[in-house]
Specification:
The chain has 227 residues and is mainly α. The protein has 2 domains: 63 residues, Winged helix-like DNA-binding domain superfamily/Winged helix DNA-binding domain (Arc Repressor Mutant, subunit A); 147 residues, Up-down Bundle (Four Helix Bundle (Hemerythrin (Met), subunit A)), CATH 1.20.120. Helices cover 73% and strands 4% of the residues. The longest helix has 28 residues.
Length: 227
């Protein structure tokens, strides 16, 4: 029982701190302190230290002896690296493991993306849209049986979520384009035409990268974030 409670506290500390980093409650450059985290989360130091060690391995914080703990910054270079990895992983998975995709889920996403209107939750709630978009791409990645590849992808997904909270809202035009691009990926998947599906996926990732850069630069101009 003691071991289980200790493990749960480690998980709780890790998930709580990670969520605060991802949502930018702990913004890039923020200094973290073990003692303050212990008081804030009402968790002892051992689970906190374990959580910080994991977060350092994931690149979310930087621990420097005698200097302290800092939430890592994000840069334009990070955007490039994230999309470089996505363009390597996602098309590869779709090409080689697309046959493992759940057809019912594909049809479900097709229905969602093709039955949109200006009053739908996607257009009223950006978080709902981002969650839907993440779920769609995660569905593709989950088709891959290679656990190491999926674990590596999870790391860049976390950084992508940080950008999402840092850069703010997405335009309705981009929402509509994203829905259309997703449909363009789904149709050849349902037809088992993996070459076309990969082509459409690569186009979508290029457009998403372009949109992300625009959001980043707009945020800089608005003094919302710094890079």
């Amino acid at each position: 029982m003691f071991i289980m409670v200790k493990t749960n506290l480690k998980t709780l500390a890790y998930n709580t701190i990670k969520q605060k980093i991802v949502t930018c409650e702990y913004a890039p450059g923020t200094f973290l302190n073990e003692e303050i985290l212990t008081d804030e989360l009402k968790i002892s130091r051992t689970p906190i230290r374990d959580a910080l060690s994991r977060l350092e391995q994931e690149g979310l914080i930087e621990i420097k002896p005698k200097k302290g703990i800092t939430v890592t910054a994000l840069s334009i270079k990070d955007v490039n690296m994230i999309f470089e990895i996505r363009k390597l992983y996602e098309p590869y998975i779709l090409k080689n493991y697309g046959s493992f995709l759940d057809e019912d889920k594909l049809n479900e996403f097709y229905h969602i993306f093709s039955h949109k209107d200006a009053n739908s939750e996607c257009f009223q709630n950006n978080n709902y849209f981002y969650d839907l978009d993440s779920s769609f791409h995660q569905m593709i990645v989950d088709a891959c049986p290679n656990v190491y590849l999926r674990q590596n992808y999870a790391l860049i997904q976390t950084q992508s979520e940080r950008f999402r909270f840092m850069t703010g809202n997405i335009s309705n035009n981009r929402l509509e384009d994203t829905f259309r691009e997703h449909i363009d990926i789904i149709i050849p998947c349902l037809q088992k035409d993996w070459d076309t599906a990969v082509e459409k996926l690569l186009y979508h990732l290029d457009e998403s990268k372009r949109s992300t850069f625009k959001l980043v630069f707009d945020s800089i101009d608005s003094n919302n974030i710094g890079f």
